[in-house]
Each structure stands twice: as C-alpha cells, then as structure tokens.
Amino acid sequence: MTLFRRVVVLVVAVIGLCLSAKADTLYVNIQAEPGGDGRSWNTAYRHLNDALTASRQGDELWVAKGTYKPDQGTDRTAGDKNATFRILNRRQVYGGFKGTETLRETRDWYRNRTILSGDLLGNDAEVIDVSDVTRFDNSMNVVTMTSGDLDSMTIIDGLVITAGFNPLGEGAGILVGADSPIFRNCEFLRNGASKGGAAYVTGTGQAKFEYCTFIENMALREGGAICYEGRKDSLTRPAVSQSHFIGNRAGSRGGAISFVDAGTPRVASSVFYGNRVEGIGGAGGAIHADERTIPYVVNTTFVRNLYGDSSGVGAAVAMHGAGVLNSIFWGTEEENQRQIAQLDTTGLDTMIAARACLVRNDFDFGFWQNDPMFIDIEHPAGPDGFLGTDDDGLRVDAMSTAHDAGVIDGFVNHWRTDCIGNPRLVERKIDLGAYEWQRPGHERYREIVREMREDGLVYMYRHMTTDWDQKDPGPAPECFPGRNLSYEGRQQGITIGKHSRALGIDVTEVLASPVCRCWETAFLIYGTYEKVAYWGSGGGASNDAGRRADLSRLVLPAGTSRAIATHDAVILTLIDFTSAEVMEGDAVIIRPLGDTFEVIGHFCSDTWERYHVRFPDSTSTGVDGDVDVVAGNGIHDVHPNPVQSELAFSLSMGGMVQVIDVNGGIVLTQRMTQGRQSLSVSSLTAGVYALRVVSERGVSTAMFVKR
C-alpha cells in the first residue's frame, strides 16, 4: 500500500469558509459588566438585543445562562409589550453556555438554561390562562423572524422561549414569516396566543423544529404549540422531528399542532403527551390538519391526548388525508376516546392511510391494539427530568409488540435518528414509536466512549450525506459530474469532527476510498487522509484481505485509533448489518482483535453531537467548562474558529506543530510543549487550514478557518 497523504483544494468556495469570510462570534452574558464589545466572555454584551444589533450575516451569538428580556438593551423601553428579539438572516444564536466555554461543542442547554422571557415585569402566575391579568403586560412576540429572506443557515439552538402572551394575535413565543430558519434543542414554555401559542409559521417558508420541547403552551383558537399556515412542501426535512409536545392545549383545533394549507408536512420521531382541545366540537387533541394539508406522520408516539367535549373528534389526530406509519396511539381507560379521526373527504382524492401502527381500540387504523408496554407512562421525561434522553418513560419494553414491528419506506430509509439521537434503522426491523432499541451492547454509550478515549479502535464511516441529483461540483475538478457531498453533508462532517475532538477521541491514521465523497468526508472530519484503493467499491480476495487487516490490526501508538471513510456496499461485506442500517454519515465502531475484529457500537452524526448532554456524568470537564485534554496525543480546544490573528489550542503531548494549507503545503511550523498554546496566523490568507501536531506518539489534526 503506497502511503500518500495530502490536504485537498476544496473548490466549493472553501466550504463556504464554513461560515463566511467576515463571520464572527459575539458573546452575551446577563452577568457581564456594562459597556462590553461582545468579543469575548470577559467583554460580553449584557443584553441580547445589543448583540443582535451588532451582528452580521454568518455571525454566531453565544448566549450564557440567565434570563434575557426583549425590552432590555440600548434604545429599548422598559415594559414595552411590542418589544421583541428580531433575528435577521444567517444569524446563529446558541444558548446553553456557562459563560467560560471556548468550544461550542461543550455547551449544555439542558443544565445551563438560556431563557428569553416575555414576562417583562416578572409577575406571571405559573399556570397560563387567557384571563390571567399577570400576563397582560407581557411581550406579544418574544422572538420575531419575519424579514422574508431567512434561509436554513439561520439557526436558533439551545434557548428557552417563554411567557409570550398575545391573545388577539399569533405566535407569542416566535413569529415566523415566509422564512426557513431551523430551531434545534429549544424549549417553548407557557406561551399563549390566539393561534400558534408557542410558534406561528406563515407563508411559503420551511421552518424546521428539531429536538425541541413544547410544554404547556396555549392557543385560544388553534395550534396550542405550533400553527403552520401556508404551503411548505419539503421532501427532504420534516417540519417537526425528534421533538416533544407535553400538555399543550387549544380551543378548537390542534392541541399541539395545527396545519392550515400546509402542503405535505412531515412529523417524525416525536412524542405527543397530554395535549388537548377544549372547545365544543374540538378536533385533534395533538394534531389537526385541514383539507388542503396531507401530513406524513412517521415513528411518532401519541399518549393521553384528548378532546374535551363529547362532540369532539380525534383524541390524537384529526385529518382529511394523511400517511401514518410506524406510530403508537394510546389513550386511557377512563377517557376511551377514538385516537384517529377521519375528517370529511368530499371532493378529495385522499384519505388517512395508516400502516404498521398500534392504535388503542381501533381496528380501522391499528394493525395492533394491545398495550405497548411503556417503561413509565406516568413520567415521560424519566428520572433525570429531561425529555429526549436515554431514561425517557415512553420508551417501550423489549418485550413490547412495538419492538421490531415497523416497516421501512423511502422516507424512513433516509431519516437517520430516533428522538434521542440514536440510529433509527437497527437490524432488519424498525420499532414503532419515537424511540429505537439498539443492537445488544450498542446502547453502552458511556463504556464505548471510555474505550474510544483509552484504546485503539477503528471508526469505519459511510461517507457523509450526498447530493443524489449530482449537481454539486465537488471538492476538485475531477469529481464532477458525480455524486458528491451536499452542503448538509459537509456541515455534517465538520460537526462530527468537532464533537469527536471535544470528547477527547484521538485518531492518527485516516484511510479513504479514492472516490471523492469518501476522501472529502475524511478531510472534513480529520483534516487529512490517505487514499487506499481497496476501500473503494468492488470485491475480490485482495480487496477483502486488505480491508479485514485494517479492521483487525492496529500498528499505531497506544491509545490512538484509525478512521476509514468508505461506502455502504463495502461496509456490508465486512459486518452483519442490513442494507438500510448504515445511513450516510454513520460510523461503525470496531475493536481490533489481532486476527479478527468485533463491532462494539454504531453512531450516527447526532449521537456524536448529543453525547455530552445525554451523559454529562461521563464527560470530563475542566474549570472552564470545556472537556479536559485526554491523556495521549491530540489537539484540543482550538479557538477562536474562525480566527483572524491568534489561534489558541491545547496539546496533550508536545511535538512539532504544523499549519497546512489546502494545497498540502506546510506554511507554518513550530515546536511546542504539552499544554495550552497559541500561534499567530495573521500572515495567512483566508481559507481552510489543517493544524497538525507530529510527536513520538503519532500525528493528530484539527481544522480551522482563517478569516
């Protein structure tokens, strides 16, 4: 095997410079001293509105834990009900920081709550009610995103949005126009409006909610949590996924969600618990969709949702036409309401089509009707109190009918995760509901990550998400035409690399298929790679022998590992996985045994990203809140990134530090010792670089962007 390492010219606008050439990070901390410029935690803005005013396209805003109100900041009037946090295009607002972090990947939105509150006077009663006078002075829209040009690079992540109150209008928590922002890891708590208590999305935008929770929001009319109004066809990402709706209510339609003229919205891997419609003739305790909307609901769990009047219909859902797949609908014996309501189909060419669903007391829509055997139906959040973690109460028992009872269709085959962040497709069957049982032993995430840090393993990746239409130009001229990585796939690779490094996982050898989408995957995660012909597609005894040798034996420094970027067709010849089981971006974790190997884990991209909030007790943290440098070779805590002049980082062992440009040339070199270090990069031109340390224990690489 010829060794050939190089760093590649990325023609794709240098991955858009990952952000933009002028992107910056602005810091916000309600505990900061007045007059800060937002350039560091020590000089943070005190008020979020001031940071939003100063921000430019591509900027990240890091917001520390605490409570922020829209009437606070420069040129704001205290007590102004019209005050709002107005977010413009391509701003990325992240919460969950303690206020000392140097890596975004180490924030914890569960335990460091960054709260945007509309309770301007701080006098709200705990239970939201339309007649509650303590809310009449609240902000009418806590967050506003209505410029009409917001795309999916506008991200709101890790915030609690609460106490908006707009009984005569829409979207007390957030008001979204014909825009397409993404909300991730957000909590919407006790907001109230006429429509869309927590969120009102209108126009032709495609706003997405991922890993969000909606708790005790209220709408006088429809959409207690969300009201989607306007056509939003999207065949690639669901409107709602991996989200929880708990105790929301509406007066007439959609206790949690109301879809109005909304095209074909997707709801995937989500939980609806205890939502209800309260008015006479109410429809859809959890979801209502009008005759101009055909939702697709897949792998979703509905429990104890209700309509409040005997003339109501659809304790869980009320729809004219829909596809419902692999979902659980479960009520109570006391309230024996029908879960699914087929609304009038006059003049329509569609109706509700349910496949592989478990529905209480319903032979029309439920293939099964027996008890799904939830782990703890009384406590959806489980012992830790956080929704979307491994002890959630609405997981099903291993002996449940819902286990391995689902079917796989085209959409499921491309949707990667359950509502925790684990792989969705496991073995030859898919579970019903929002949670997926993993292969035996693969759920030992703490033990697996501990072994990743201590022992030499092999990470065998299927390449990141690709552009199946073959329109992406690829990372080099020879790659086009061809099936190259998509924009989403490139971000996916960068994110996996950042999170694996933040967890202290050390990889010193990176092999890749010669196909562009594979070596670009390796470059994005690790900043280096070696093309190896036998990791391309194709069989033969020599190919098989080389592959198995790479998985079985490591001749590397102790405590370091090997990564491989290849194809699903190759992976399936080596391990006993099914054809649909390894999604684009998934990693199979392998323990070499000398003459053979064993598979010990299976991570999707979200498994890497969410590990530290799911298992904070097994994530080493230092005094500054970042992951400690793990013993062994490696570069950690690279910041700021993007950087303009001075790059800071930590070395777990001293050695020769090199900066490599996109042509593979070494442009800076300096010998450094173990510990915290810094390097001037002001002389470099703008672009993507690899930071590499070469020591007696091997080579380790991290990526950074020079502005």
UniProtKB/TrEMBL annotation:
Signal peptide: 1-23
CDD domains noted in UniProt: HP (cd07040)
InterPro entries noted in UniProt: His_PPase_superfam, Pectin_lyas_fold, Pectin_lyase_fold/virulence, Secre_tail
This protein's UniProt keywords: Signal
Domain Secretion system C-terminal sorting: 638-700
Pfam families on file: Por_Secre_tail (PF18962)
Keyword Membrane: no
Protein's recorded name: Secretion system C-terminal sorting domain-containing protein
Species this protein is from: Candidatus Kapaibacterium thiocyanatum
Organism lineage string: Bacteria, Pseudomonadati, Candidatus Kapaibacteriota, Candidatus Kapaibacteriia, Candidatus Kapaibacteriales
